[in-house]
Specification:
This protein has 268 residues and is of the alpha+beta class. Helix content is 39%, strand content 12%. The N terminus and C terminus are likely disordered.
Amino acid sequence: MSAVSSAITPVVPSVSSVVTASVPSVVTSISNLKPDEKRSFLFDINCSLEIPMEDFDNNWWPLVSEYLDTMGFHRESSTRQKENVPNEKRRITKIRPSGLYLAKIKVSWIVSSKVVQVERYNNSSNHTHSLIEVDRIKRSKTVRSLVEKEAVKNYSPPAITAAIKEYATVKLDLGKCVRKLKCKEVTNIKYKVRGPMEVHLIGNSNLKLDISESVSYLMEQGYQVENYRVPQRSTKGIVFAYPEQLKKLERHGWLTLIDSTHKTNRYD
């Protein structure tokens, strides 16, 4: 893939298409395009297009960032930096053949007129694979942002994957974009989001003090408090209940807990 520099900003390349480039023309009506149509239109663009800068930044760029934000310079493989690691211990990776991405798309942010100009550069060659293949390799900013928002809530990866597929299809008209979204991708993004969020809890004296004060308060209010730990699941916590509740549990064998899953812990 290659990129072209603009007088205003760096120009970024695209990655695939099936439409033959034609003589550039100016498109004037794009307001009725749905998100999936916008992605396909820019991916296969064969004309000159001007979009208001604010509209492009908010409603276009997040949809196409995965294939328009890759510059055309050579990037070293991460495996090449591990000179002392034997080949049999290296992760097996797929390497794309060189000279595959010949299509060039020029994107210019024109500050003076507050527009973004998008066009096929110098009638460059067509793309060699589809937009679906691009989505498989990397998700757009819109999809990644949705995953990050749900990851903050600490839902399970399967639940996040199902929710995003439904929401993106029904509400955002991005069914094609999320059709191949995998649970493993969501898991990786969630780890990146939740990891930094929970680092501050390790050795946090304020957290330990808050827990100690909470336990003392509950015991003063007549609660029976017990610690529990499940080693095989790396789970631990605190259980508290009124003695009267425990008597009901002994008598009936079950308790009705209303809103027992509601999270009120500010550290969660």
